[in-house]
Amino acid sequence: DLARRGAAVVAISQDLDEIFEISDRIAVLHHGRLSPAIPAAEMTPERVGLLMGGAHPEAA
Asked: Fewest Cβ atoms nearer than 10 Å: which of 10, 15, 30, 51?
């Protein structure tokens, strides 16, 4: 398992179900700006949508 060995894996997808299934942390790239990586357990699809639309991370 890569995570147990300390490796990072970056997955890029628009399939939110897949992202929530495979991710420990989720960050959103919008117009070249990367949001902070948030633990997947604390993230919601609605929050991801707000970040994808350009909402400031603290407001999302």
From this structure: 10
Domain borders along the chain are: 3-52
What proportion of the chain, given as a percentage, has pLDDT over 90? 75
Element spanning 38, H or E: strand 38-39
For residues 47 and 50, what is the distance between their CA atoms, to the nearest angstrom? Answer: 5
This prediction's pTM? 0.82
* Other CB atoms within 10 Å distance of the CB of residue 60: 19
Q: How far is CA 56 from CA 11, 24, 28, 41, 49, in A?
A: 22, 21, 11, 20, 12
Give pLDDT tens digits for 3-25: 789 998 899 998 999 999 999 99
